[in-house]
Structure formats: C-alpha cells, structure tokens
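Late entry, glycyl-adenosine-5'-phosphate complex.
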Amino acid sequence: MFIVKKEIKGKDYYYLRQSIREDGKVKAKTICYLGKIKKEAEEKAKEYKSKTENKNMTETKIESKEITIDELANFCKRKGFIYPSADIYGGLAGFWDYGPIGSELKNNIKAQWWKHHVHGREDIVGIDGAIITNPKVWEASGHVENFTDIAVVCKKCKNKFKVDESELKGAVCDKCGGQVESKGKFVPMFTTQVGPIKEDSTLAYLRPETAQLIFTNFKLVQDNARLKLPFGIAQIGKAFRNEIAPRNFIFRVRELEQMEIEYFIDPDKKDECPYEIEDIEIKVLSANMQEKNEEPVIMKIKTALKNKIIQLPWHAYWLSSSLNWFKSLGANMENFRIRQHTKDEKSHYSTDTWDLEYKFPFGWKELQGIADRGTYDLSAHQEKSGKSMEIMDDASGKKVLPMVVAEPSFGVERAFLVFMNEAYAEKEKDNVVLRLNPKLAPIKAAIFPLVKKDKKLVQIAKDIYKNLREEWNILYDESGSVGRRYARNDEIGTPFCITVDGDSEKKKDVTIRNRDNGEQKRIKIENLKDTLKKLISGEISFNNL
Ligand code: GAP
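Prediction complete; structure with ligand written out below:
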C-alpha cells in the first residue's frame, strides 16, 4: 500500500493505493481518500493498514501443540513465567524464580483453589502456619524416622536418584539401566538452627509438608471457627524437600508450594459421605489392576465406588471434586487418571491412597495424592504433646478423636505445569497462543490505541486502562503494529485485546478481540467493564456479545 498525492486546481489531495495482480497484470487501485494534509494522510494510512492487518488475524487456525518439558521451560523463561533461581550465577538445582507473568499465574491458581475449596464451602476454613516450627512436630509426625529415601548412584553414568527401601534390591539406573550403588538412608528435610549461637541453638527443620501445622493447630481452629464434624482445614504454603534428583523443570523441586486440605470425620462414620459425587468419567487404575498388569479402564467415579474399586465414598468424593476443579478451569479430562497406591508405595501414615495422575510431557505422573491418614497424626501429637486432641461431637453426643478420611494435597508447581501444558497451542507461522482460562490468565485484557501518535485515541485508551486496572491486571500497549501487539498478548494468554480506533471517539465504542479465534466485536465503552467481568467469570461467552 502506498500514498499518492494528486494536484487538482492547485490543491493537494492524498489517496491510499494498492498494487494488485489482475489477469497476470499488476494494477494500482485506489483504496480510500486520505484528505488534504500530508501528516493527517500518513496517520490515516497507518490506521487503515492496521485495521486490515487486524481483520486478517481473525482467519488463522489455532491448534493444540505437544511440547517437550525443555521446550516449555525455555518458553517460560523467554516470556517471563519462570527463571532458574539466580540465573546470573548459573541457578541452583531444584529452585526456581517466578517472573512478572508467572507470579500472576501462580497467584491466580492459588486464588482459584482457595475460592473453590475454602470460600466456596461452609465446612472448610483456612490457616497460614509457620515454615519453621518446633522440631518435636517432625518427631511426632514420624518424618524424622520415616520420611526417608535411599540415595543411589549409577556406577556407569553417575546418575543420582532415590528409591524406596523395598525397591533397592534389583534397582537399576533409570537413565542407562546400569548397576547402582546405595549411598544409604537420607532424610530429605532441610535443617537450620534457631538462635545465633550454635551451642544454645535449636536444630530445626524447614517444613516438608504444610499438613502438620493443620494438625498441631487443630483444636484451636476447630474451637475458633466453631467447626462441626465433618469439616476440613486448608492451607497453601511453601514446603521444602532436599530431593536427591530434582528434575523435569518444576515437576520435582526442592522449594515447593502445597495446597492441602485435611478433612476430618467421626471414625464411626467412614461410610457416610453427605456430598454429591461429581458425574466425572475418568481412567481408573486400582492396586489390584496394577498387580495383574492390567490397563486403566475408563469409568464414572460413581461406578468405581459402586463396584468397590474405590472403597471409601469420601475418596470418590474428593477425587471427583479435585478433578472437577481442573475441569472447571478448562483442563481436558482425557489427560487425567486416578491410580491407587500399591501396598509397597503407601506412606508411613496412610491406609489407602489414590493419586490423581496427569499425562505430563514426560509421561503419567502424580499430580495430587489423596490419602486416608486415619487418626495417625492427631494420635501422634496427642501422645507427644500430652494435650488432648479429642473434640465434642454434637451429633453423637460423645468425645471423638477425628480421623482424616482424605487429604487432598498437591503442589502448585504441578498445577502450573498442567495448566501451561493444556493451554499451549500454536497458530500459523509458529506463533504461540496460550489458551488459559480467563480466570487464570496473568493479564485479563490489553488496551491499545490503534495509532500511537493520535493523542485523542491515546487519551481514550488510557482512560479505559485506568478504569479497568481498578479491577484487574491490565496491560496498556501502544508499540508496534496491532498484529504484533495481538501476538505478544496471545503468547502470554491475555484473553481479550481492546482496540481504540478512529471510530471510537464518535461512536463511543471499541473493538474487543477474542484470543482463541481472533474474532472481534464492537462494544460500547460504558459497557466494557461489566462485559469483561462476565467474560472473565464465564457468565457469558464471546459468542453471546
Ligand atoms: N501432606 C501430604 C504430602 O505432602 P506428598 O505425596 O509427599 O504428600 C503431596 O506430596 C503433593 O505435593 C504431591 O502430590 C505433589 O503434587 C507435591 N509435591 C511433593 N513433592 C514435590 C516436589 N519435590 N516438587 C514438586 N511438587 C511436589
């Protein structure tokens, strides 16, 4: 496209023309009149070009793309999601820092989980316990004695990894199949000292799970929040594990963040779950099926419970509730399965555990554990502290020591990987589109003036930006072509781009573009905030605008 000047009766007139090929010949065609002043004509031409580019963007096809974990790690670093911790010094294995976009996504995941599992229900309250606490906690919980791994090193390739005691005999290197040498028992809790002088100081641990703070505060929380059985206590917070072999990007890290619920019931009412089990169909792999080397079977969780594949209604309930949380945020259930722990794998405190597993780029792996911890922890703390952990149960009129029938527990990092993996898609020219659910999206909307030099457009765009920023994380972007601005936002998952153009001042409206298909609609500026609210919450879809 190019600008031409025509002189008619001593006056200048500017037009936008374009060369097109017709019947094998190149012809120049006038597209539109640009006015009489050169500067204005140049601005109008720019606006027209951007609009055309805009239109062309709506026709591209977006498709999910399978990527390796290394590709995902590179993408995360490039786009400001996650960096190796202290990258300028070469990082430190198992530790990661979250950048401007990643920290927003991580916060949104935690906020959605809290909203769903704490604010969204009457029977669960939250706490925020200390990372370092009295070391007696970890003696009582059995972590000092039982939370151990056997460290092994491959004699051939020197690969270091961990095995369970039961797996040590006959263990081979998981990389090259070589013989391994045991380096002995290893407690993966980080230690520190509390107090400045070593002799007077207390040896303490960085907590390896958030759960124990829920148990130690159990009585106070139950009393303060006037909780009646059955009820749950939730917590989100950092935990630390000195993993022998951190790997697969943020899948196995040394500093992690857990989202955990301890759900307490009267042990005499193990079979009475008053809640509806979600109607979810999923691949099921029981311990029995694993022993017989059978493949997972797709079935409804309700059916698995009816057929006694899942024994406890509470486990069926929590498995379906956790899956439903992922589903409500756009995850594809085909990439999930539930697997029961075999006899040898169960933790020291658990009588039955089901894992929710996800098909990560490196295979099916644990995403979340749902363990029946029984009365293990409350009994242990009762004994060690000498303080009763029993509570009065109004329903039965007796004192009970509640049991933890289910402990839905998972790492924020693994949820982060799931949502990134599910969202990652590409459109023509290898441009990435991150189709994150708007509730999770780090930036909810980006605002652009179509032409940066047009002061009126810039002012309208900045006013909209200021107004929307009161509610959400919003981006204002005026640099580069509109096409580039769309592409930049698609890559970081911004669901809506709002463009202020030449018509906006007169018509008091803007265009809003949908990330997932490039579709655009015009919308009145006065309705923008309300519409955006409904689009982000999922109350309306873009098609309904
Ligand atoms: N309170 C129970 C508990 O901590 P766990 O199976 O050891 O049980 C629960 O851990 C969840 O925490 C796992 O399912 C996983 O999502 C996450 N997790 C555990 N260790 C992790 C690590 N090193 N890196 C990332 N996430 C981890």
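The chain has a mean pLDDT of 92. Will revisit in the morning.
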